[in-house]
Request: fold
Amino acid sequence: MMKTRMIAIIMATPFLLFSCVSAKKFKSSQADYAKLDTLYRTLQKENAECGEEKGILVRQKDALERELALKNANIKDLNSQVEYYKQTSNATLKQLENMSVISAQQAESIRKSMENIGAKDLYIQNLQQQIAYKDSLNMALVMNLKGAIGNLDDQDINIKVDKGVVYVDISDKLLFKSGSYDVTDRASEVLGKVAMVLKNQPDLEFMVEGHTDSLAYRGTGALIDNWDLSVKRATAVVRVLQNKYGLDPSKIAAAGRGEYKPIADNKTKEGRAINRRTRIVILPQLDQFFKLLETKK
Reply:
């Protein structure tokens, strides 16, 4: 009997060992598969993000190419007009000289004047090209800001270019609680996206403006009126951009506008909501523009 049991145990031992080894291999394979699956999902997510970023860049490129084509067409048209006027003027001078209506000396004087006009035309064209280049940079900046912020409600944030200046208007409903100048967590997130774009343009200077509606300030504490509230809100935003997101404070200015620069009717509830805003103004680099004027004279 004992002998029979020993034989059974000896025969079963290889099967038990094989079963243990297979289970270990199976668990190891499962762990490897889980790692590979996690890596695959991460790569999928990164690929999707790259695709979105590529789409934004393609749209920006197409917009700039259309803008450049339009500017080139305008310049070509102006050049054609200048050339036409030059030819017409030269022909008229020749006819007058042949008819002895004016002397050769007078004709030469007029011709030199026309050459000076041509030089001025070239100067104007150079300025137009520089302005067109600046406008293209502004449009690219606007598109970068909109791409960074994403599909946020236009009532909460508005980005535009007006007379060569880029404006970012952020509703106080998004930034602050009523009567407060403490920046909300949601607003800090949005400001971070704006800061990301501005940080990539280190030469840009900008100003943060606080605006209120026309209703009198009725809060408590150190604030007296809407002037105080608008200034405190502007400096609160500046501190977030500087301290949390690392923007150079030497490139930033803070200003309070109070209730005196409304963009909507303060007589309505909707208008007052629009007027309560913080505006980031991307300041034009006038020193570079004036330097251009000096070198081109």
